[in-house]
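User: Okay, second chain of the day. Same drill as before: sequence in, structure tokens out.
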Amino acid sequence: MTHQEKRERKDEIIRQYGAGDSISSLAIRHGLDAGYVRRILRQSGAALPSKPRGARRGTRREVSPRTRQVIFALGNSNATTKALAYRFQISRQRVQQIRDHAIADGELKPRSNHSKRINALDDADLCVH
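Assistant: Same drill. Structure tokens below.
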């Protein structure tokens, strides 16, 4: 592709974006990477939508009613993470995240294995060798 053809393609991308085409559709139409199309538009001075850069620090989203159900189930049952994930059709990792956030917010008490360890010690003490 010659320099002139590249320049014409860039002008066409800028014109089509101004007409309302999306960055992804322009990338597909011209066989380019979306990042390259963004760079062309940025260099031309076009107003681009801001790209989300992860969660905003210090702000918390409202807890959904579904998440509240999971928290309630975590606190009121001895169900395993796997069972809760299956019940609510979410991943086990998401159940753990909800549990960790609920504990950090004081909505849920951390589970303790202390009683299990004590019972295991008592059983071990009863064994006669």
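Residues 114-129 have pLDDT under 50 and may be disordered.

User: Thanks, on to the next one.
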